[in-house]
Amino acid sequence: MRATAGWRPLRSRATSSRRLCRCTLSDLRRTNAMIDTIYNNRYRLDAIIGEGGMAVVYRGYDLLLRRQVAIKVLRSQYASDESFVQRFYEEARAAAKLSHPNIVNTYDVGEVNGSHYIVEEFVPGETLAALVARENCLPEAVAVRYARQICFALAASHRADLLHRDIKPSNVLITPDDVVRVTDFGIARAMQASASPSGAEAIMGSVPYCSPEQLSGERMSAASDLYSLGVVLFEMVTGKRPYTAETALGVAMAHVSADVPNPSAQGVAVSPDLRDIIQKLLQKAPADRYQSAGEALSALRRCCKHVEEEADEGAAGGDTPTAVWRRRALKTAAGDLPPAAAPAPVWQMGRAVGMAAAVLVAIVAFALVFAAQKAVSRGLTLPDLTGKSQVEAIAALHSVGIDSVSLKQRTDAAVSAGLVDGSSPAPNAKVRPGDAVVLYLSAGPERVRVPDVVGKDVRSATAMLSAVGFLVRVSAPVHSATVKQGMVAQVNPPGNATLEKGSVIALSASLGPLTVHVPNVVSMTDADARSALSRLGLRMIANVMPSVDIPPHTVVDQDPAGGSTVDPGATVTVDISGGPNAVAVPDVVGMSLDDARSSLEQAGLVVGRVAHAVVTDTSAGTIVSQTPSAASQAPQGSAVDVVLAVAPAAASPQTETSPGAAGTATAGPALPPVPNVIGMSVEEARASLEKAGYHVDHVTLLSGGPAGAKVVNTEPEPGATTPPGTTAVNLIAGH
To answer: What range does the domain containing 265 cover?
Structure first.
């Protein structure tokens, strides 16, 4: 085996188990003291299995699901640092987005008494860093196998628009079954969020494995993770990193500006194919590298197939190929002696015939294997992936040797959104490794805009909605003031909404405008008539006329007549009997309230409701209108409502405005709630309100109220708050 010639381990397992850890004595005591601690009544810490710069990793036990887990606990000195805590939780959120056989699963995250922790899948085995440190360099076939599995993990991460940004041997776990599991997504970032990192974040990864663009703070891409993979692959096959220097800054400068090293010049045998792959991965410009993990994976598949076939010899007994070479290396390291020199061969015809037969059998076997491989290559069948998730479908294609996979979306009502609903070529088609396959992901049912059919006849509207794929249901008709009777007045859901094809649309035809039937109020008292009309939303205007045979306050006529239809809010005019003693209403406009009261009492009438109005062309305290009007008839003893003029309120001082806000009124501060002035005289109430910053706009005297009536209510009500700048309060006075 050319790739593994001369390979033997340089360190024993006991030596590799020693670890250098920088921690204080108090840290060590604390971490050991946490053994047997139980988090969240569920996760028990059993033993320390690893330590990093930010966290300590424990082997733990999930008491609820009864399984081993790995529990990563943030170090105490970072628990109070918000940036470190945020990064700690970002690792959990980033890793939780991914589900792939080559990525360590994240189960839970939480905090207990100031200790922040992440619960992950427990992966038995060792890190790639420990393996390389023990064995110095790995056989080429093993390095290629591990690199391919790292590519699988990166492909899944990049499909989720997530960059790892810290690919290095210590973040790659190797299980006893030779499966690679990538971990530690602590500094992963979404691809669209990874442009132009700045400051310390730009070099948050491990410097010996960072790409030039990561070290220089430039935009990162999938090619950045592939550069780190190139460094790891270089170290696996040579036992050395591509760039070394006395300081981290020197290493960083070498990554940015030094020539790409040749792995074959490091004193180990590296095949030309693998050498070319490593050097392409380590190119300074991202555009010169492989542009996707799929491209790198295809190159690794083509590389060193003969080496893999040799590495697979002897593994038929159930051991993995890597386990085979590890066992061979251990035997060599144990000092197996070379066999004693054999005696000079003696020519025998039987031996010659046997050797010729063996050679012939080997040639025939090789031909059969080669033919079988060709047949398999020609007869590869594309599996049916319908209904599978994106991750499952791509993993299935990779497992049969198809690496070039692209994704497209299309609508499909039969397959849930996000699942595969077909492929190109179609399922069960014959394909060859290297062929491109398109996976179609369902976007769910097709969505269609609802046409605007308001104002159209029901038949035309139904046809329009059915033509674009909707089901139509005709609902109860509704009144409409704007849509002609019989036309569509209401659509639910409304027009221009976007719905799934096949949704149900309800149509309601118009009944025309809503009308009110006027009740017959003739022979009712004026109070009953007003109440009956008000319940239907109608207004009433009353005219009083003398009558010798109809009791006072009785409606004798109405317009419109009872049974008529009118619009809501219409006015009904009624004639009311003033009785045989009806009197003419005196003209009190222009009088003071006291003079008006005397004049009405002399005519057998009383002052009714007193309203106030701000009038600038009449003296304050003067009546400006009355109801009923002067000279009209009114029953003796009935009330006359008047409107009393009040002076405008004094203008409140204006807050000086800034030069830039000239002409803009500035609202003053909000006032306290309206004081409770109920029970006070009008003058007392006015004084109390002005003390609180309010002013009385007008006073309404209830019908029959004396001149010195007390306040019975205010508008706004007592205790209410007013908008800033609003100071007016109306008083209502009565008995």
So the answer is: 126-311
